[in-house]
Amino acid sequence: MPKFFKSLFGQVVIALVVGIVVGVLYPQFGASLKPLGDAFIKLIKVLITPIVFCVVVLGIAGAGDLKKVGRVGLKAVIYFEVVTTIALVLGIALAYFFHPGAGMNIDPKSLDAGALSSYVDRASQVKSEGTVEFLMKLIPTTFVNAFAGGDVLQVLLVSVGFGCALALLGNAGKPFLSIIEQASHVFFKMMFFVVKLAPLGVLGAIAFTVGKYGIGSLQQLGFLVALFYLTVTIFVVVILGAILRLAGFNIFKLIRYLREELMIVAGTASSDSVLPQIMRKLERMGIKDSTVGLVIPTGYSFNLDAFSIYLTLAAVFIAQATNTPLSTVDLLTILAVALITSKGAHGVPGSAIVILAATLTAIPAIPAIGLVLVLSVDWFMGIARALGNLIGNCVATIVVAVWEKDIDKTQARRVLDGKVVVDLDEHVEAGPGALPAKAAA
Fold this sequence. Notes:
By secondary structure, this protein is an all-alpha fold. The protein has one domain: Proton glutamate symport protein (Orthogonal Bundle), CATH 1.10.3860.10. The chain is built from 24 helices and two strands. A two-stranded antiparallel sheet has the order 1-2.
């Protein structure tokens, strides 16, 4: 038991329980703890872009074979598109099977549009952007601006170019590579300090949510929330489980291996909070850092499996709640538009509601004002979104690594079976090129 309290996992679990208790007994005080959660997320985001840059550059320059880097990227994108499409279809299928919005009989004119004004404005901007505009946004105005803006895709673009250049320079590029490697150890040491604050961040986020909305806040649209959690669970266990099984691994063992990171994500409703830790853990499984460095950052914007489920499920829910009949063409339109709008959602403020609004505006039959119904429970759905997205990206990395033979399967199975101990503090602090995980006692 003392070991449980000393571990980050145990501290996060305790923080979750304390946060709920504080929110229930002292709601006003609980709501005032929101800055704890916000500050933790901001501290994490400060370090994400430099860490992604270091990891990707070191991975590409270390790989040496640029054709292989391109092949890994192509396979990752193909995988993302196939699995995301499955997620979108699953959202529509379960919405039609369970009818979460049936019987609500909401008159769109009775809904208050005031709460949506800021989201609708940003949604219009997102919708107005075509493919060319989207691709142009991937290119930063300056090298430094890529990091200042915090856009992971822009940093990834710069990192890939920098890594390829260093690889082509050969020996002449080694001094730069050494500097980047040393810098990566500094950033990971900083992340080691920030991760220690995870229990406080979780405590603040949970206490605020329960204090402001109350435990009963889930009852208003409880069926929708429950169905979304069920759908994400089915997707993770059945779809991702089958994919991972074909790759030779077990989804439940992977979830157990990532339990500390998943608890932090559950508490903060943000997968950003564990990006560096996840990359390190996958490397300690025996996956090459070049593959991890390419697939994970790209997946954070292009492989949002649970977010895709949310888009189609919420769209059909709003249609059902407002008694809006949907034709086959409408459903296909939702599917096609969501497949596009979900890409790059990671960088959009209030992304869930904004991207959902942008998706609905492409289907005139569905009243966009119905977003008000989802807004009140969006935070709770955000927990499952973040968890599903994170697990999906980890599975994608393993699958691509298996395709490319970039994984030591023996090491991976030993780690997932618990025969090798991977300590969160150690792998965050160590950074790239860390020593192998130690054998379990």
